Amino acid sequence: MNIEWNATNYTNHFSFVHKYGEDVLKLIDAPAGSRVLDLGCGNGALTKKLQELGFQVQGMDASSEMLHVARQNYPDIRFEKGDATQFTLQDPVDVIFSNAVFHWIDAEKQDALAAHIASALKPGGTLVCEFGGKNCAESVHAVLEQCFTARGLHYPRINYFPTIAEYTAILERNGLRPDYAVLFDRPTPQSPGKTVVDWIEMFVGEPFRGMEETQKAEILQETENRLRPKLCNDGKWIIDYVRIRVRARKI
């Protein structure tokens, strides 16, 4: 994945990620008692919600820091470390659920991801997922790119933000048939007191790797100043998220 997480900061100040994810749970139509894998479970908050809905759950994540928080908070749930593009399960599951994960996986690895999901599902099993879609947080990324370019730097677009057509084609060629897919704007308010700089510090770390702190601070301040008229309303920052939400069945 294209990110290293500050698990404590994420849990304390970016809880909107899993709170919005609760709505995605409604797409799961498997009966209570079904076995569900929360793929990219993060701090385990949604894994717990799945358990409360009556499912037999387990969580999997690539981040040791996130798994530490999940195991501390929910000791009665099984959490395992695993790469979403390489994982295997001892027994297939009825449902694979994933929220805010797939956009962190490189575009060239999306077929491997879909293939591993299909192999881990029972026949007729279901993938339910939501992640960043085409033009997600584009206002922020566009300004950062402009700030980098003005300084002779390259701003890498590391996220995978597909259209519905792009993503459902990947699922279909890997044995998963979508029966629900939607791309929608979801302007996302940040926690009180948090600015676009806090958002960048959490979610856009990779482009700044190795950069001198003074230059980084300069870019962050310029980005905040330029985005304030568009994304800040009465002191509340709202990031221009776009989400893609999909349910697909294993053929």
TrEMBL record:
InterPro entries: Methyltransf_25 (IPR041698), SAM-dependent_MTases_sf (IPR029063). Transmembrane segments: none annotated. Gene3D superfamilies: Vaccinia Virus protein VP39. CDD domains: AdoMet_MTases. GO terms for biological process: methylation. Residues 36-125 form the Methyltransferase domain. The keyword Cell inner membrane does not apply. Keywords: Methyltransferase, Transferase. GO terms for molecular function: methyltransferase activity. PANTHER family: TRANS-ACONITATE 2-METHYLTRANSFERASE, TRANS-ACONITATE 2-METHYLTRANSFERASE-RELATED. This is Trans-aconitate methyltransferase. The lineage of its organism: Bacteria, Bacillati, Bacillota, Negativicutes, Acidaminococcales.
